[in-house]
Amino acid sequence: MYDTLYHCPTRWDEVEQLLAENEDTLCLAGGITLIPSLKQRLMMPDALVDLAKVLSRTIRLEGAHLVVGAGARHVNVARSDLVQTHIPALAALAGGIGDPMVRNRGTLGGSLANNDPAADYPAALLALRGEVVTNRRRLSAQGFLTGMFETALEQGEVITEVRFAIPKTAAYHKCRQGASGFALAGVFLARFADGVDSGVTGVASQAYQDPEMVAALQTGSLADWQPDDGDFLSDMHADLPYRTALLKHAASEAWKAITPT
Description:
Elements: E1 5-7, H1 12-21, E2 25-28, H2 34-39, E3 47-50, E4 59-62, E5 65-69, H3 74-79, H4 81-86, H5 88-95, H6 100-105, H7 108-114, H8 121-127, E6 131-134, E7 138-140, H9 141-144, E8 145-147, E9 150-151, E10 159-165, E11 169-176, E12 183-192, E13 195-201, H10 211-219, H11 240-258
Parallel strand pairs: 1-3, 2-3
Antiparallel strand pairs: 4-5, 5-10, 6-7, 6-10, 8-9, 11-12, 12-13
């Protein structure tokens, strides 16, 4: 580690003032990704602003949406009666993130702000027609996720809550990397009255929607379907052909879970 200033404000105006004073300031939520990055000096900000005392962990029902405070930890989402009742697939997703330590420290807002290409929540955000609410504006899932480890968040902008549309049914299937629990391939499918939406994670530079995959599932032709793999990842954990096979398996399993027998 190295010397850096640490702030733990209790009001939003303090947060905004601290972020405005120095552009080389980072926000700290759960710290699951940030703290190891600091230890390895991959990030070296002048100051940290701990959001623990200002971020809401509240989960509430608002019309046809489930609204989750950005400070909600993965374990909060997994164990929430509201989430388990209205979007059980989201509760299952949260319960399958990492390990117990990660689930007890990591937050929804922190995970989305990091936008790891193998993270679980971005797939749910896309499939559940999610919206990210910040201290300044509201962004659609597609408008928020902009690239590998990149989002539309601007300097001084902080996620405050996330809105998920409640589907008729939904399912998430993930092929896990054994050590980290990250997705080698993960597919979230959500069935709404007007169709099925998808979110794919773990295979490309960031999570994405794949309507052609959904069409292949609907016609029973997934075996013949080939994804556009120009942006696919290929590494020591899964090369391109294996990742493609995992993607098809995850999609098939998620589809079975949302399709009446």
